[in-house]
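About this split. The held-out portion is used to measure sequence recovery: a designer receives only the structure tokens and must propose an amino acid at every position. Recovery is the fraction of positions where the proposal matches the reference. Here is one held-out target exactly as it appears in the evaluation file.
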């Protein structure tokens, strides 16, 4: 990163010490900042309480499973046909559509088919109720706005006071302050990307990742809203995974840290950079 000692001296030491070169100072700061930040975080972690992570596997109801399998088989067969006729490059938009819809169906099938109830939502609400009864405050991170609306409607039915944050929310800091200081608000529901960075939510000690994201770093950043400096309680982080679904494939990819995962994500966004037919078989196959 800095080259040889001579190169380092020529690029930074001499310009900074001899000429007070502001550009050289800023460039050096940019290069060493990640290492300083990593060191600071490492020191902070020594003083933090325990963090317990657990995966909660959820069974699909017969109706949910039937609907999911119908759509999976539709996309599996359609994509294979399209790739055979047009090639994979001209099928990539269709691939993204398939991945997104199947993930949406695992999260909130009611949006696609009204008579199908989300198995995950029922398990989530049960766990939230139990957490509140044991005097815990809860964060829920979700990918889809429709899922947030479904969850919030269920919280209302259980008379649970909650706050909600999405990309459209303007008064974010006001909501954060309210959650941090007002004991009446037990649950904060937010999108994974909106709540994933920059927020201090240490009054919560129980976290639910409702939908897994391709890149586990995004999930870790969300958990760190509660597991950070100022937290004095053990933090419980739960990831809800629907069995026999694309979510299990995502979890396997996270565990494998494979090249396929790199092919699927571009920074923190979903893409299809260099997917192969075998990759599609792994993700959409039974």
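Reference sequence for scoring:
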């Amino acid at each position: 990163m800095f080259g040889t000692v001579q190169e380092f001296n020529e690029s930074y030491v001499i310009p900074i010490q001899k000429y007070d070169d502001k550009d050289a100072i800023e460039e050096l700061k940019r290069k060493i900042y990640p290492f300083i930040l990593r060191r600071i975080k490492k020191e902070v972690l020594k003083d933090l309480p325990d963090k317990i992570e657990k995966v909660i596997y959820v069974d699909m109801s017969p109706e949910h499973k039937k609907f999911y399998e119908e759509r999976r088989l539709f996309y599996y067969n359609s994509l294979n046909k399209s790739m055979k006729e047009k090639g994979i490059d001209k099928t990539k938009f269709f691939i993204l559509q398939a991945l997104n819809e199947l993930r949406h169906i695992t999260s909130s099938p009611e949006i696609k088919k009204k008579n199908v109830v989300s198995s995950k939502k029922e398990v989530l609400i049960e766990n939230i109720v139990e957490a509140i009864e044991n005097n815990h405050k809860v964060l829920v991170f979700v990918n889809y706005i429709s899922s947030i609306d479904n969850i919030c409607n269920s919280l209302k039915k259980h008379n649970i006071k909650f706050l909600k944050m999405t990309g459209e929310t303007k008064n974010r800091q006001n909501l954060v302050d309210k959650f941090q200081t007002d004991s009446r608000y037990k649950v904060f529901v937010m999108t994974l990307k909106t709540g994933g960075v920059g927020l201090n939510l240490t009054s919560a000690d129980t976290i639910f990742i409702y939908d897994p994201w391709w890149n586990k770093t995004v999930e870790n950043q969300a958990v760190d809203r509660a597991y950070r400096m100022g937290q004095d309680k053990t933090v419980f982080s739960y990831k809800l995974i629907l069995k026999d679904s694309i979510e299990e494939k995502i979890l396997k990819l996270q565990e494998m840290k494979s090249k396929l995962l790199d092919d699927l994500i571009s920074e923190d966004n979903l893409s299809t950079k260099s997917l192969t037919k075998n990759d599609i078989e792994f993700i959409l196959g039974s």
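Annotator remark: The domain at 51-286 is CATH 3.40.50.300 (Rossmann fold).
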